[in-house]
């Protein structure tokens, strides 16, 4: 673990990504301390340009854009983590079962995944939220479900290659139970690509959340989310461009950081990329 | 000699798209208590599959046992439920694999992997398991066993790893050891060491061993009796010296003649003409007929039966068919 972080920090990409991700997480965790205003409080200064009183200006209801951005980070990080967690755990279980048992189990699971895969992820998430009703919890569930097929495929592919290794036959030849073979010998050997996938998946989860909120199906007003802030800024974009620029930049930087971190992690964990410049 | 393992009429099929190919057809053989039994044949002749079937480790699907019985100590292994078969594997049957480099899980130490088998069958604790693993490593000739037990597999050479694999297979003192080409991946000097080690351990513990190989040299060095496989048919079984001095089946004869000898300075190395037909593509008649120097008209029509010779050897060939 220590060695992992040492390697991550040696890599420029990983360093930048980790710094960015840490920044977003710190902002999210300490939002009440960092925000200069109550994100929901409507001041008398409408569409105020960025300046001394309001760091990034105010929106059309006079709410502080900076503070809303800070609280929006909370939503993004929270959704990113939990939704990715749902997708990752679901995908891990399904991928292990499909890859290890093969045959009918594999067919049923993978055809189901193909069906989920066939929908564009935003559309699928939209459909799920439309059925469950728009609120934060349902958004997270929807994004999580959308992420499951990606994880299932990654894990299954890796399980297939691990299963063909002689050491799996070897542990079976000493009479170890299937469950134990999977948990003790298959699972640890598929962790590397799984972790990479998880890191990369955080950014798409955040992006999907922003998109859903933009469409009005994620976080409900007046609570701030980067996506909904962007959505609300449409009407006043010409008058107060900072209301659009701020969340856009936040989304871009956050996604970029998570992706860079993912790349850095992959460089370390993927043995195929070792020693390749 | 008491019989430990008796395989009768074993047939194994491979399910492919729509069709079923026969991989092993009607193979029968017995392995005695304390006997080293060789299974020889070319790649794809069904020798490994037969051994995996004995251990209950067939990749199923697509492979499955179609018919026959595998009796060990009075129990039909094929009729055992998976949970019972698991307690046979590792305890009564140990396996040694071809590629020591990949036969160990890269994420656990050598000691842990040896102890895993103990924990499972002997129900010993982790600490005692490691202690016994260290002792076992000493027995398979690993220097500084305590230090090696704490190492991960990638730190050891192929020969050392094969010793570890042998330690895993032997730690529960199984009655039957199945060795699937245990020396193929090793270089020649290490090969000899590993064979010596296996032979010594098997003989001194009174175990039986099935040695699967395509190398007649290995057979000559280790085995008591040999079964020769060709295209999924067991074509001949005989004591090892007879295989070399007096082969019955034309294929066995061809195999023996194609071994290079250090005395032959001139002349060409004999090779059996042709190559093995694909599994499932055999027509009627004897499976070896296309490459056989002593083919008769009858070989193309009917598959030869297995005939048991007066001296107990068995052979599947029309040359001997009528005498049986």
Give an overview of the whole structure.
The complex is a heterodimer of chains A (277) and B (324). Chain A is an all-alpha fold and 277 residues long. Chain A has a single domain (7-273), classed as MetI-like fold, CATH 1.10.3720. Chain A contains 11 helices and no strands. In chain A, α9 (178-214) packs parallel to α10 (226-233). The longest helix of chain A has 37 residues, at 65-101. Chain A is elongated, with a radius of gyration of 22 Å. The two termini of chain A are 23 Å apart. By secondary structure, chain B is α/β, with parallel strands linked by helices. Chain B has one domain (3-92, 174-259, 268-321): Rossmann fold (3-Layer(aba) Sandwich). Chain B is 31% helix and 24% strand. Chain B contains 11 helices and 12 strands. Chain B has helices at 47-54, 82-88, 110-121, 126-139, 145-149, 158-170, 188-205, 216-222, 240-245, 250-257, 318-321; strands at residues 3-15, 20-32, 36-40, 63-72, 75-76, 93-96, 176-180, 208-213, 225-230, 233-239, 306-308, 314-316. In chain B, a hairpin with a 2-residue loop joins β4 (63-72) and β5 (75-76). In chain B, α3 (110-121) crosses α4, α3 runs parallel beside α6 (158-170) and α6 (158-170) runs parallel beside α7. The two termini of chain B are 24 Å apart. The mean pLDDT of chain B is 86. Classes of the chains: A mainly alpha (277), B alpha/beta (324). At the A-B interface, α8 and α9 of A face α2, β6, α3 and α6 of B.
What value does the Rg of chain B take, in angstroms? Answer: 21 Å
Distance between the termini of chain B: 24 Å
In terms of quaternary structure, the protein is heterodimer
Q: In terms of per-residue confidence, which ranges of chain A show pLDDT below 50 for 5 or more consecutive residues?
A: none
* Overall CATH class of chain B: Alpha Beta
Examine the coordinates and then state which fold CATH places here, giving the name of the CATH topology of chain A. Answer: MetI-like fold
Q: Which fold name corresponds to the CATH topology of chain B? A: Rossmann fold
Give start-end ranges of low-pLDDT stretches of chain B: none
Looking at the overall shape, the CATH architecture of chain A is: Orthogonal Bundle
For the sheet with most strands of chain A, the description reads: none
Q: Overall mean pLDDT score of chain B? A: 86
Gyration radius of chain A, rounded: 22 Å
> Which percent range describes the beta-strand content of chain B?
15-25%
Mean pLDDT across residues of chain A: 87
